[in-house]
Amino acid sequence: MNIHEYQAKALFSQFGVPVPAGVPAKSPDEFAAALAQLPEGPVMVKSQIHAGGRGKGTFTDGFQGGVKFCKTKADAAELAAKMLGNTLVTAQTGPAGRKVQTIYFTAASDIAKEYYLAILLDRASSRPVIVASTEGGVEIEKVAHETPEKITKVFVDPAYGLADFQVRELIAALGLSGTEAKNAAKLLKALYTCFWETDASMVEVNPLITTPTGEVLALDAKVSFDSNALYRHPELVALRDLNEEDPKEIEASKHDLAYIALDGNIACLVNGAGLAMSTMDIIKHYGGNPANFLDVGGGASKDKVVAAFKIILGDANVRGILVNIFGGIMDCNVIAEGIVEAVREVGLTLPLVVRLEGNNAAQGKATLATSGLALTPADSMADSAQKIVALVA
Ligand code: ADP
Ligand code: MG
Which residues bind ATP (predicted)? Predict the structure, then answer.
């Protein structure tokens, strides 16, 4: 689960990671009151969307820049009005862009130098890794590609936490000394605690800055949480912004279905994550393109299957459906009854290939065969994939 910059910065503050003062606003009526809470001086106006590259982004009406510097608060209110409700396209949003529904007003800092800092989970070593670079404010992928020697990685032993010698190593890599080094050490420890305590999968600060007086501040903040740990953090779940998520994925999460929208045209309905992955692979193998990942789980009810069908059909790109069920715990006949009910309810006209195998498969196949529905039965993974690819083509 991702959150907005303004929410991430509020979280940073709670953990003692220094950030410039800032206030969000969701409608133009709130601009004046929000700006009044900021200290005198220049203000940054920042579009809040779940995507980076906002500063260099362009709005669909041609207005340039989702992050703007303003000398006065009056200018800030004027620019914010141009951003709010407008759609921002950045390198990370895709061509459709994202509608800006919140503006973050924040004090503009005096920047001495910009750095890059992130903490993420390294799956290869099963450890948090801290990534730091003297090249801040630019895309880290570009730095990694062109000047990989400018990136330092420190792997943290999760049992011991971030050690002082590792903090010193990072500070040395960033070339910091004196007051800056002291402040950076405090920030690093606080950021690590924030990452650890919130079960984050990533905290990214780009840029991290030093000021002419030696302060060290997080000017940008991107935080993602491990969804599997959210049950431990109701306060973080409350930060979820449904405007930023695919409506089909929201609906799926209500039914406890593991669904991820993709950009192909063959929808899949499968039980078990591993089988769902191999189903997508075999569709690809036979020249098709999966429209989604969907795992209905081990013990799906009829209602769940109906909900899954509705979600799949909510995707306008879908030209055919492949149901691939291996009944281990799952009773194939429950799936078959769910399919019959769903197809009747939604009036399905697209090609549908169904492969049922395992527990009570014979009964399931009989239910489908006597339903009178126009569907194509299949016997193996290869058979089912070839059939749906051919039907969609
Ligand atoms: P994005 O990464 O989405 O473009 P950032 O928050 O990093 O958005 O903002 C883009 C750039 O704007 C930063 O690299 C920084 O140079 C500048 N900037 C952002 N916030 C501030 C601030 N509070 N004070 C001064 N400059 C800022
Ligand atoms: Mg940034």
Answer: 46, 53-55, 109, 114
Q: Give nearest CA residue, ligand 1 atom 7.
A: 220
Conformation bin of residue 214: beta by default, left when phi > 0, alpha when psi is -120 to 50: left
The pLDDT of residue 387:
98
What is the DSSP track for 126-154?
TEEEEEEES--SS-HHHHHHH-GGGEEEE
State pLDDT tens for residues 93-150: 988 899 999 999 999 999 999 999 999 999 999 999 999 999 998 889 999 999 999 9
The whole-chain average pLDDT of the chain stands at 94
Whether 116 sits among the annotated catalytic residues: the reply is yes
The pTM of this model reads: 0.82
Q: What residues line ligand 1, using a CB cutoff of 6 Å?
A: 20, 44, 52-55, 67, 106, 108-109, 111, 137, 206-207, 219-220
Compute how many other C-beta atoms are within 10 angstroms of the C-beta atom of residue 112.
Answer: 14
Report which ligand 1 atom has the smallest distance to the Cα of 106: 23
Domains and CATH numbers, the chain: 21-107 (3.30.1490.20), 113-237 (3.30.470.20), 246-392 (3.40.50.261)
Degrees to nearest 5, angle at CA 194 with 192 and 38: 115
- Which helix (H) or strand (E) element contains residue 295? strand 292-295
